[in-house]
Structure formats: C-alpha cells, structure tokens
Amino acid sequence: MRYKNPLLRRIKEMKARVDKDICIGCGLCESTCPEVFSIEDDGLAAAIEGELTAEVCDDAEAAKDGCPVSAIEIEA
C-alpha cells in the first residue's frame, strides 16, 4: 500500500480521537473515513476505540486534515 504521507509508511498502528468540545458535527470525517469516524446520537463525531490499522491511516489523516475546526487528533 502506498501512503501519501511518508511518515505513515513506518507507522503500523495509530489512534484517533475527536475532541467533542470542539466538534461541530458536520460529518466530514465520517464521510471521509467511515471505518474510523461516526456521528453519534448527540450529533457529534466519535472515533472507533482502539488502534487504527495501516489500511485506514490515509483516510483518517485526510479526515483530520479536512476537519474545519481541527477537532481530530491522530496519535502514533
């Protein structure tokens, strides 16, 4: 698999987190990477629990980069 971000080539697992104090519930993250993000009953985004696999890292990074309020963090 080819990654857009060269750093991701070396990362096997990552964790995503959504700051619900900042999230506006626009749904962009869910539409960009539904394997990792979803809109919950409160109307705000949430990330899956646990570690991300290499297969979804590019999409998760794209969701982070596209978040209009920078509510997403991805930890290596």
User: What CATH architecture would you give?
Assistant: 2-Layer Sandwich
Unreliable spans are: none
**For the CA atoms, what is the radius of gyration?**
12 Å
Give the ordered list of helices and strands.
Answer: EHEEHE
* Total strand segments: 4
- The percent range for helix content is 10-25%
Q: Provide the structure class.
A: alpha+beta
CATH class: Alpha Beta
How many DSSP helices? 2
Overall structural domain count:
1
CATH topology: Alpha-Beta Plaits
Shape, principal axes of CA atoms: globular
Function: Ferredoxins are iron-sulfur proteins that transfer electrons in a wide variety of metabolic reactions.
Pfam families: Fer4_13
Protein name: Ferredoxin
Organism: Zhenhengia yiwuensis
Keywords:
globular; 20% helix; 4 strands; alpha+beta; 76 residues; two-stranded antiparallel ribbon; 2 helices
Describe this structure in words.
By secondary structure, the protein is α+β, with helices and mostly antiparallel strands. It has one domain: Alpha-Beta Plaits, CATH 3.30.70.20. It is 20% helix and 18% strand. The chain has a two-stranded antiparallel ribbon. A hairpin with a 5-residue loop joins β2 and β3. The chain is globular. The model has no long low-confidence stretch (mean pLDDT 86). Keywords: Electron transport, Iron, Iron-sulfur, Metal-binding, Transport. Residues 14-42 form the 4Fe-4S ferredoxin-type domain. This is Ferredoxin. Ferredoxins are iron-sulfur proteins that transfer electrons in a wide variety of metabolic reactions. One of its GO terms (molecular function) is iron ion binding.
